[in-house]
Structures are given as structure tokens and as C-alpha cells.
Amino acid sequence: MQAESTAIIIGASGGLGRALCEQWRQDDGIDKVIAISKQPEDNRSTLPAIQTIKCDYSEASIARACEKIKSLAGPITRVCICNGLLHNDHISPEKRIDDIGLEALQEVFNVNSFIPILWLKGLLPLIKSNDDCIVTVFSARVGSISDNRTGGWYSYRASKAALNMLLKTAAIEFARRAKNVKLIAFQPGTTDTALSKPFQASVKPENLFTAEFVAQRLVDIMNRQKVDGELSFIDWENKKIDW
Questions:
Q1: Which of 119, 142, 167, 240 is the most exposed place for a label (fewest CB within 10 A)?
Q2: pLDDT band with cut points at 50, 70 and 90 for residue 2
Q3: How far apart are CA 133 and CA 7, in angstroms?
Q4: In terms of residue numbers, what domain contains 143?
Q5: How far is CA 203 from CA 96, 197, 208, in A?
Q6: How confident is the model at residue 89 (pLDDT cuts 50, 70, 90)?
């Protein structure tokens, strides 16, 4: 890795985002960490080598954040887009088709599909360079169409499948326009964060990972990636997931 290197974490206030901030803060190969979230006014702002940017993830706010990154960052070599929505105080995964509602579908797709691709649009001029840049976007195994054997979770499954297609399309374009960029759709496994909390009772203890463990695995995976013009859909073990 280059002597000067910037890592960007988008969605840095979540459990995995925070863990990634800490991993890269301690990484001698990373010169600067930029943490982006809706609530940047927390203890990350007091940590050495971490810059925070507040963003509400609207299209205009993403554009403003990218302008701010341009003024802060050295060569950008690592990007993680961690945004994800499975449930909140008014949305739950649909167990059957009768549970589908348009507003929930739109909100889930906005967070899981649209926001990540808007970030890639905004970041492209900043990451296109002579320095290799590995970009990871958090996807999900349930976004695999071939792996869907149980049904349910309509909006979450579909939004992650849509994300994968958006990333695949971007990878084809980046292979022409930003040959230094490698895209990864990453399945972190069931991680002990707010996203998985309501569903952890059915998970075996050995299959429930800490955010720190997943962050460490992801950083290692990103360090070993080769820029090949392809999108990789992989899990925390660096194993390929079928589309």
C-alpha cells in the first residue's frame, strides 16, 4: 500500500462502520480515515487521524460530502459503504406477500440500493487515479436469487439483488473509466449489530460475529484483492456467493 492512503467509511455510526474506523485508525498503511454518517458528533471525532462528515444521504448531501472529501483526502485506496436497512420502528421484513407496502418498499430500496450507487457516482472522480482503490459495499447472501430457498423478506432480498446488479453494471463501466478500482459486494455474516438484533435468537452462538471480528476479516480481504475490473460477491470467509 502507498505511503499516503485514505480510507472512507460511509455509514460510520453503525456497529460495523465504527469497527472499521477503529481498524483503519490503527492501520499503519492508512494515513487518514474519513467517517461519514448522519450523526458524526460522537467520539470518533476525537480519535487521531479521523475526519468526520455529516450527511443525510440525500442526493444533494452526498454531492456536498464528496466536495468535502475532495478537500480532505489524500489518495483514496479504501472505501466501505455500510448503509443498510432491514427494519426500523415502522418496517419489518415481510413474511408473506400480503405484508408488502409501497412506502416500505421504497424506503428499503432507497437505503439498500439507491444510496450506495449515488455514492459511487459521486466518488468516481475522486477514486479514479493511479492508485489502486478497493471499494466494498455491504450486500447480503439473501440477495442471491439462486440461494433463495425460504422466501419472505421481499423488500430486503429484492433491494440487495438490485444493489448487486447496480454494482455489476458499475464494475463494467469502471473497467473502462476507472481501471484502478475494484468493487466488492460483501456479505458480513450475522453480526451483533442493531440490524440483526431482533433475529439473533435463532442464530447459533458460533454463527453470531462481533463487529470487530467482521471488520478485521474485511480489512484483510480488501488488502488481498487484485484490481481486475470485476465485481466480486463474497462473504466474510472470502468465499464466492452465487448470484
A1: 240
A2: very low
A3: 9
A4: 6-235
A5: 21, 10, 7
A6: confident
Say which CATH number the domain at 211 has: 3.40.50.720
Q: Cell digits for 192?
A: 451483533
DSSP secondary structure string, 189-215?
Answer: -SBSSTTTGGGGGGS-GGG-B-HHHHH
Joined grid coordinates for residue 186: 460483501
pLDDT value at 173 more than 50: yes
What is this structure's pTM?
0.90
Cell numbers that stand for 112 in this block: 439498500
Q: Of the given ranges (72-76, 142-146, 161-165, 167-171), which has the lowest mean pLDDT? A: 72-76
Q: Among 145, 84, 143, which Cα is nearest to 116's?
A: 84
Q: Would 241 be classed as within a structural domain? A: no
Domain count of the fold of the chain: 1
d(CA 167, CA 165) in angstroms, rounded, equals 5
pLDDT of residue 87: 86
**Signed CA dihedral, 221, 49, 62, 121: sign only:** negative
Q: What's residue 48's pLDDT?
A: 54
As beta bridge partners, residue 9 has 35, 80
pLDDT over threshold 70, residue 1: no
Q: Say if strands 181-187 and 133-138 run parallel, antiparallel, or are unpaired.
A: parallel
Q: 78 has which bridge partners?
A: 7, 134
- Over its C-alpha atoms, the chain yields an Rg (Å, rounded) of 17
Burial 122-149 (b: 16+ CB within 10 A, else e): bbbebbbeebbbbbbbbbbbbbbeeeee
